[in-house]
Each structure stands twice: as C-alpha cells, then as structure tokens.
Specification:
Blueprint (H helix, E strand, L loop, with lengths): L2 E6 L7 H9 L4 E4 L8 E5 L2 E5 L12 E4 L4 E2 L1 H13 L9 E4 L3 E2 L2 H12 L12 H9 L6 H4 L2 H22 L7 H15 L3 E2 L1 H10 L4 E4 L24 H7 L8 E7 L2 E3 L12 H10 L11 E3 L1 E2 H11 L3 E5 L9 E10 L2 E3 L6 H4 L3 E8 L16 H14 L3 E5 L7 E3 L8
Parallel strand pairs: 1-10, 1-11, 2-5, 2-10, 5-7, 6-8, 7-9, 11-15, 14-16, 15-19
Antiparallel strand pairs: 3-4, 12-13, 16-17, 16-18, 19-20
C-alpha cells in the first residue's frame, strides 16, 4: 500500500495530467485536492486527446474512483460539460466512479464577473484565467462561500444566493462598473445544476481514510505548480490555493503521516503563463523555438506560454517545499534538436551569488541567471523505452538535474502518449 502526491515543480503546465494518468494504473483512488478549472491537464491515449479541467486525470481508467476534494473550487457548469463529454466518448459508465466532497466551494457567476472585471481594469494585472477562482477562495476564507452541499439543497442554496448577491452587485456596479446579476436567474440555473449533480455528493476525507485503512493505493493530484503556491510562490503572481504537497492533507482531509511519496513534475526546460518573475525567460529566437517545438499554449486559455531554460534554483526550492522523493522529467523530447542546452545553477544579484530562491520579488527582479552549458544530443528520443538507450549527453543532462536538486529522477517522458514514458522507479512499489 502507498499514498502518493503528485505536484508541479515549476509554474504549472509541467505535464502532471500525463503522469497522473500513468500512475493511476497502480492506484484505487485518485484525489484532486486544490485549484479549479484554471488548470488544464492534457492526456493522450493512443491517438485520442483529452483535456480535463476539474475531473481527476484518472477518470480515463475504468474502475478507478475519482474524488474532487474539499480544497477544490468547482464551477458546476464546467463540471457538467466535462461529465457529458466523457460519457459521450464512452468513459464514466458508472457514476459511482466520481465523487465530489460536500465542502467543495462553488464558483458562482459573480465570482467570474468580478475576476474578469478586475483583470481587465486599470490596476495591476496578475494574469488570472478569469475563471472566478480567486474570488471564490476569497469568499471561502471570508466565511461567506456557497458549498457543494448547499448547491444540492434548493432552499438552502436560494437563501445563500439572496444573502450574497446584494453585496456582489454593489461591488460590480459601484466599483467595477459592470452590470448587476439577476438573483432569480442564478437560482434557477444553479438549482438545475444541483439536481443533476447531487448523485456525486460524498465525503473525500471519509472515503480516502477508509481506503488507507483498507490498504488501497491513493494518488493525490495537484494542479498548477509549486511556485504558484499562495504562501510560498512568487506572490502576488500566484494562484489562490496551496499547490504544494502539504495542501493535499488539508485539501483532502488526510493526516500527513499517511503520505509515503511525493513526486514533483518538471519539464526539461521551464514555462510560465501570465504575469510574474521568470529569471530564465528567453525573449529571443530560442524561446520561440522551444514554444514552437513544445506546443506551449495553455490548455485552459490557449495563451502562449513564456519559455526559458531549466532553473535549478527554483527547482531546488520546489524539492524542499514539498519534501519530494522523486522527480518526473517531462518533454525531454523537446530538446532533441538543440545544439546546446543550458541550466541555471545560481543567480547573480548585484555582485552576490545566490543559490537559494529569493522570496522578495524586488530582489528576484534584479537576479540574473548563472548558466552551465551542455552539449545537445541532436537525436530522436521519442521511441526510446529504456534510459540505457538514451544518448550519453541526454543521460548526463538528467544526472546533472539530480545533482543540482538533490532528488532522483524516477520517470522520463519523451512524448505525449502513455507509451512514451520511461519509469525508473514506481512510487507505489516498496512503500
């Protein structure tokens, strides 16, 4: 039996969906513990591509229970659209395969309206997806949120909407210059969602802890990346939830003593979407080249991703914050054509050499990357199934990542398909 947490080790978009899909084979439960539909996990099975925003990536495996836990914020309209698309393609034949915790907070239309109005206004832009994620977490912390258990009770839901909407409309009209929302229209639309979704109501904590006691493997699926964590990321250019491994315990209601492994997902280079510091960003032909080869466009928004060389300073930070026991390196194949490859090993800041990631954005903005350059392998790795068959330059690159970050590489991905994956160690074995 083993309980494994999957987290992003960079700024998101690292390929967590594929890794979760691979590891789901060994798990009984797959649990999404934070974030909302601001995350997009892209899965490729055979020639079929699936993009999921809320439902755990394990849903493509028959017989696996997928749980949306209390740390998530859920847009019921998006959730139903995902359910319908999956069912139309022959997945989710048994609705008991999917559970939503009653404490999961609901993204309401006013959350989306506020989010979009703020981001399009004259003030500082964070680079949000405009999906209402931040405002929903604000209401959660402010103890005025509406939860999934409320949504499926029409009278309770209507009462809470009537309590909340006057304040939201005041903010929309008087401060943000937006039209007010209709109370009755929201109640009618969302009550219908609740009627369809009530069959999925359950308790993540009860189910997960029961699985642990029964010796059933559990996989915890994170969204976004460690450097977007609300407490430990590049604040304020972060998401609104705890994206690191500790967030799995609070976000799913399980004690930390039951966690066996933490696997961090990192691209062989780095990308970032939205605003915020990015020390190794490449605003040149090489950056464009990485974006083109890697198809670096957001699964949720379609926005082009910023690209750069692998940042070992930031990766060490993620390893420490999460207590990672292994690294999964994705998109190794994107580097196949390059003549030379760089890794940032430290930062130079006003004459000082920094090897630890600075939390002060004023300092970080002044940091310049210190690079170590490596010979490229210029060889196709997409069909290789053993690390021993990799070009020596590629093996040396992976070895250097391990040395710089103090964490072993346990998986290497050389393409989007399931079969384009090399597992060096299975985190569900020997725990």
């Amino acid at each position: 039996m083993a309980n494994v947490i999957i987290v992003g080790a960079q700024w998101g978009d690292e390929g967590k969906g594929k890794v979760v899909d691979i590891y789901t084979e060994y798990a009984g439960d797959v649990v999404r513990f934070q974030g909302g539909n601001n995350a997009g996990h892209t899965l490729v099975v055979g020639k079929e591509k699936t993009v999921l925003h809320l439902i755990p990536s394990g849903i493509l495996h028959e017989g696996k229970r997928c749980i949306i836990a209390n740390g998530v914020v859920l847009d019921p309209k998006v959730f139903l659209e995902e359910i319908d698309r999956l069912k139309a393609r022959g997945y989710l034949k048994d609705d008991r395969q999917l559970v939503v915790d009653g404490n999961t907070h609901i993204i309401m239309p006013y959350h989306v309206a506020i989010d979009k109005a703020r981001e399009s206004g004259a003030g500082r832009k964070i680079g949000t997806t405009g999906r209402g994620i931040g405002p929903t977490y604000e209401d959660k912390i402010g103890r005025r949120g509406i939860r999934f258990a409320d949504l499926v009770q029409p009278e309770v839901f209507a009462r809470k909407v009537r309590e909340q909407l006057p304040e939201k409309n005041f903010l929309l009209e008087k401060f943000l210059g937006q039209p007010p929302l209709s109370e009755e229209a929201i109640i009618a639309e969302y009550t219908a969602y609740g009627e369809r979704l009530k069959q999925y109501l359950g308790s993540a904590s009860v189910l997960v802890n029961a699985s642990v006691r029964a010796g059933r493997n559990v996989l915890f699926e994170g969204a976004q990346g460690s450097l977007l964590d609300i407490d430990h990321g590049t604040y304020p250019y972060v998401t609104s939830s705890s994206t690191i491994a500790g967030g799995a315990c609070t976000g799913a209601g399980i004690g930390p003593r039951f966690i066996d492994e933490v696997i961090g997902i990192s691209k062989a280079y780095v990308t970032r979407v939205g605003e915020g510091p990015f020390p190794t960003e490449l605003n040149d032909e090489m950056g464009d080249r990485l974006r083109r080869i890697g198809q670096e466009f957001g699964a949720t928004t379609g926005r082009p991703r910023r690209t750069g060389w692998l940042d070992a300073v930031a990766l060490r930070e993620a390893v420490r914050l999460n207590g990672m026991t292994g690294l999964a390196i994705t998109k190794m194949d994107v580097l196949n054509e390059l003549e030379t490859i760089k890794i940032c090993t430290a930062y130079s800041c006003q004459g000082e050499l920094l090897t630890d990631y600075p939390h002060d954005l004023e300092v970080l903005a002044k940091c310049q990357p210190v690079y170590e350059e490596f010979e490229g392998w210029q060889q196709d790795t997409c069909d290789l199934s053993r690390l021993e068959d990799f070009p020596p330059q590629a093996r040396s690159y992976l070895k250097k990542i391990e040395e710089l970050c103090g964490c072993p590489v346990v998986l290497v991905s050389v393409g989007p398909r399931r079969d384009q994956t090399i597992q060096l160690k299975n985190p569900f074995d020997g725990a």
